[in-house]
Structure formats: C-alpha cells, structure tokens
C-alpha cells in the first residue's frame, strides 16, 4: 500500500470521527490500560498477603489414607 492510500484513509477517518472523538477514544483506551495494570498489581498484592498468612500451617493426614493405593484397589483382591 502506498503513502497516498494511507493519507486518504487518515483523512477519511478524521472526517468521519473528527479530531475530538479520536483523542477522546485514545484517552479512554489509556484509562483502560492504567486500570488493567492497577488491577494486576492489586491481585499480586492480595496473593502475596495470602501466602504470608499461611506461613505456619500444617496438613494432617489420616492413617487409613496411606493404606489405600487407588480407586478400586480393594476390588482386585476379591477373586
């Protein structure tokens, strides 16, 4: 595509939307990107806080859970 083609497209876009509308759209897009980045940062802070709260937690296992090797393991011995 030539330079003339891109100039014609740019002029048509300016005529259809006007200068104010394009700058308004770009401003809205910038606000959306900023809020997206802020949301990602907040999610990281929440996840970090949750991992710090779980520091000393232990998990207890039941004794009978160690005896089972899988689903249907008892059925194999019934011959």
UniProtKB/TrEMBL annotation:
Keywords: Cell membrane, Membrane, Protein transport, Translocation, Transmembrane, Transmembrane helix, Transport. It is found in: Cell membrane. Part of the twin-arginine translocation (Tat) system that transports large folded proteins containing a characteristic twin-arginine motif in their signal peptide across membranes. TatA could form the protein-conducting channel of the Tat system. The gene is tatA. The lineage of its organism: Bacteria, Pseudomonadati, Pseudomonadota, Alphaproteobacteria, Hyphomicrobiales. One of its GO terms (cellular component) is TAT protein transport complex. It comes from the Bacteria. Belongs to the TatA/E family. This is Sec-independent protein translocase protein TatA.
């Amino acid at each position: 595509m030539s330079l003339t083609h891109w100039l014609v497209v740019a002029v048509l876009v300016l005529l259809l939307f006007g200068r104010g509308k394009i700058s308004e759209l770009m401003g809205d897009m910038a606000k959306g990107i900023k809020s997206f980045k802020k949301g990602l940062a907040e999610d990281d802070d929440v996840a970090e806080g949750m991992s710090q709260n779980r520091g000393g937690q232990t998990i207890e296992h039941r004794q009978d859970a160690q005896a089972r090797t899988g689903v249907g393991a008892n059925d194999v011995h019934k011959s």
